[in-house]
């Protein structure tokens, strides 16, 4: 009888531990999902910035082309053209940096996806383990009730003798 109670208590502790692990895994999963959302927002922002910089670059290149055709007439046009060329170079550098940042962010996003999938598998495994422990617990409960009923019947039989 004491062994059954001890075993039941042990099963309860194991079930509680499994539930705690499941909750921890779910919490980590939610945290990773939030990080994923944050990275996706960062990617959208960077993509928008790349688009804006590309548009600016196109405008600057168009202006450089226009100024090159008229720069033969004056030194001032030459100075303006040089400034625009420098600006184009700076914009190209910014574009390269933004593209590199997007690539890095995409890699981080991929890593976060892998981690999220890993934690989702862990959550599933822990939930299955918890379900198994709950099933075992229910089986032990029914065995305990059956044993208790047999014991009660045996006591009645012994008392009637």
Produce the secondary structure layout:
Elements: H1 2-70, H2 75-160
Summary keywords:
rod-shaped; mainly alpha; 96% helix; single chain; 161 residues; 2 helices
Largest sheet: none
Please tell me what the overall shape is: rod-shaped
Q: How far from one another are the termini?
A: 24 Å
Question: Quick check: average pLDDT?
Answer: 89
Q: Number of helical segments?
A: 2
Order of helices and strands: HH
- Percent helix, as a range, is over 70%
What is the number of E strands? Answer: 0
Weakly predicted, low-confidence segments: none
Strand content: under 5%
CA-based gyration radius: 35 Å
Given helix and strand content, the structural type is mainly alpha
Report what the structure shows.
With 161 residues, the chain is mostly helical. Helices cover 96% and strands 0% of the residues. It is built from two helices and no strands. Helix 1 (2-70) runs antiparallel to helix 2. The chain is rod-shaped.
Summarize the structure.
The chain has helices at residues 2-70, 75-160. With 161 residues, the chain is an all-alpha fold.
């Amino acid at each position: 009888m004491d062994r059954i109670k001890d075993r039941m208590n042990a099963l309860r502790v194991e079930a509680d531990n499994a539930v705690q692990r499941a909750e921890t895994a779910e919490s980590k999963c939610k945290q990773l999902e939030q990080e994923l959302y944050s990275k996706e927002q960062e990617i959208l922002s960077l993509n928008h910035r790349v688009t804006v910089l590309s548009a600016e670059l196109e405008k600057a290149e168009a202006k450089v082309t226009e100024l090159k055709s008229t720069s033969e007439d004056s030194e001032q046009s030459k100075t303006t053209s040089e400034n625009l060329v420098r600006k184009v170079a700076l914009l190209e550098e910014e574009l390269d940096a933004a593209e590199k940042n997007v690539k890095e962010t995409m890699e981080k996003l991929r890593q976060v996806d892998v981690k999220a999938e890993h934690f989702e598998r862990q959550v599933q495994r822990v939930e299955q383990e918890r379900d198994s422990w709950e099933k075992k617990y229910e089986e032990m409960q029914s065995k305990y009730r059956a044993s208790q009923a047999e014991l009660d019947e045996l006591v009645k039989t012994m008392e009637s003798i």
